[in-house]
Amino acid sequence: MRLHKEGYGPLIGFAIGLIGINAFIALYAGAFTVIPALLSIIFFAAVVNFFRYEPRKHSDGSREIVCPADGRIVVIEEVDETQILGTRCLQVSVFMNVFDMHVNWIPCNGVVEHVSHSPGRFLSAHLPKSSTDNERSAVVIRNEAGDPVLVRQVAGAIARRIVTYPEVGQKVNINQNLGFIKFGSRVDLYLPLGSEVHVKVGQRVKGNITDIATLPR
To answer: 40, 130, 131, 185: which one is catalytic?
Structure first.
């Protein structure tokens, strides 16, 4: 199993902390205790699993929207996206639990024309208001046909850090990493009306593998 580059720092920190805790317990108890050590190993293994990384390749297309994250589809609906695009869009949202691989992927080919980060609350990522009230980052990619696609990384109740890689003016493609959200979250896609959606609410999806939609032109 490979680790994502975002995992090295936290894992070193957790390892040092757990070793320190177990050393303190052993010193205080006068002997090495098995139960704290086992709990520490289980916890560390869970964190390693969270930061796992699986390279994936997808055959891209000019109008294809590929899933930006592993997880479950929780929203498919028309909404008024007033914060960035200022228009009515088709929203498709993917919720990631702590057991999902938390790498985020570029959903389409194009040029990045907007990147922003907004501070906010840490409501459960299941809630509809999390898209507008929670800590979040937004990236707008305009494809060759001129269609804007907004990808919004949303922090959840546990997530405390969002990492976003693209920069304005950068040409991006399917198969590239968009970023990483640490410890539970969701990713929202805002697509042009008329896009043909290929998933349904409740469906399990995989980042850079599942076809989410086809743009209208």
So the answer is: 185
